[in-house]
Amino acid sequence: MKLGILPLGRPTFDVPFAEDNLAAMLSALDATRHEIIGPRELLFDEGATRAGMTELQAAGVDQVLILQVTFADASMTVAIGAEFDQPLSIWAIPEPRSGGRLRLNSLCGLNLAAHALGLIDRDFGWLFADPAGEVGEDLTALFRGARPARDLPLGAVPAATREGEAIARAIRGRRIARIGEHPVGFDTCAYDPGSLKALAGVEVDAMDLDDLFSAARAATSETAGALRAEVAGQVDGLDDVDQDELDRSLRLKAGLDDLRGTGRYDAFAIRCWPETFTEYGGAVCGPAAMLGMARVPCACEADVYGALTQLILLQAAQAPVFLTDLVDMDVRDNTGVVWHCGQAPLSMRDPEGPAEATIHTNRKRPLLLQFTLKPGPVTFLRISQAKGRPHMVLACGEMLRRPMAFTGTSGVVRFEREAGAVLDDVIASRLEHHMALAYGDHRAMLRGVAGAMGLPLLEL
């Protein structure tokens, strides 16, 4: 068979580590004795990827395999899926839970790609496996079409409950400020204002990032100083980060407070990168964590439905919520890792470990909060638009007391079902890459919310 490969990557991740993993993937592929055609180096941009696509077309390949070496947005995956009629597969890879930075974030890239391919109804196969392990049989199954992203049917709309109807009523009339457009290739964060209002009665005001930057720059030194004093009493290491960049980051919190007061907003959906780092010069992650503690959800990457999901879970849990990524699944350990850069509310910190001030691992600017999530039962929720079908996704698990998996805010979770089955369902459902997390088991109440909102239910 002529197997066409396209190794996708992003230069903001650990490129030498990614290249080592790519070499291991190529070695495993060469061992299959198929004819491997295509680039054997990381493709970081559209031009290089399209050149690789042209090479595959000229060779007349039988199948196309995307090597998801690091996280990447789904724009090129969608282009590849639309360009080729041949069977399509994606191979993503785990990385060690070393306690350091998330060096690849490959699984999240697969998650994003699965959602985007679901929106264009493109079939694909997938594999999440260590290239240094025994992957020969898995690759053979993948190429034979025995590892498809199956179609996961939705459940029925549950019965509405009195509590569910009360939460649905409480959400109606809420206001979300969407600040900036969602990043290119993040179809998971797209939304239609009319559909959102019809579903939940929620209004969205679309603003520019410059509106936030202007409000932040207008904050007084006294306000910024008071915010610094507040954070200094909560986390270690504040003096160790760049103080000018820290000041700019804290002013983003002041700017969000100002916009919230003026617009009477209940939640934000913010285009957090790259412009907050490259144009403004400070991270919004720490300010988002502070607002989360105040029960004002902040969804990163301008994820409006993520903000809606947080608002609903906040009502059910009556406690702060955290919008998180699923970044690892270990079938042997039967656990997963949830993570985001550094924006979990401090109430979720494991009291046996420190809370620290840190910088963004890729963009190298403060303020981010760093700690391990505390042990206890947790509920996951997403109001999903996967495959163009509005529905509610629910899951439950137990956060374990484990060493820090990755820097930022992260936790090791054991789901109620076996980890491999949960991962299968995440890909099969084409779930968005953000889910809201709150402590406690709130599924019974949220099933009633699904009924009150007329949403089919999918439980992972």
Description:
The protein is of the alpha/beta class and 460 residues long. Helix content is 37%, strand content 22%. The protein contains 15 helices and 18 strands. Strand 10 and strand 11 form a beta hairpin. It is globular. The model has no long low-confidence stretch (mean pLDDT 97).
Please describe the topology of this protein:
Elements: E1 2-8, H1 15-30, E2 35-37, H2 46-59, E3 63-68, H3 75-83, E4 88-92, H4 106-119, E5 125-128, H5 136-143, H6 162-171, E6 175-179, H7 193-200, E7 203-207, H8 209-217, H9 221-232, H10 243-263, E8 267-270, H11 275-280, H12 285-293, E9 298-300, H13 304-317, E10 322-330, E11 335-340, E12 356-358, E13 368-372, E14 376-384, E15 391-400, E16 409-415, H14 419-428, E17 435-439, H15 443-453, E18 457-459
Parallel strand pairs: 1-2, 1-3, 3-4, 4-5, 6-7, 6-8, 8-9, 13-16, 15-18
Antiparallel strand pairs: 10-11, 10-17, 11-16, 12-13, 14-15, 14-17, 15-16
Helix pairs in contact: 6-13, 6-15, 8-10, 9-10, 10-12
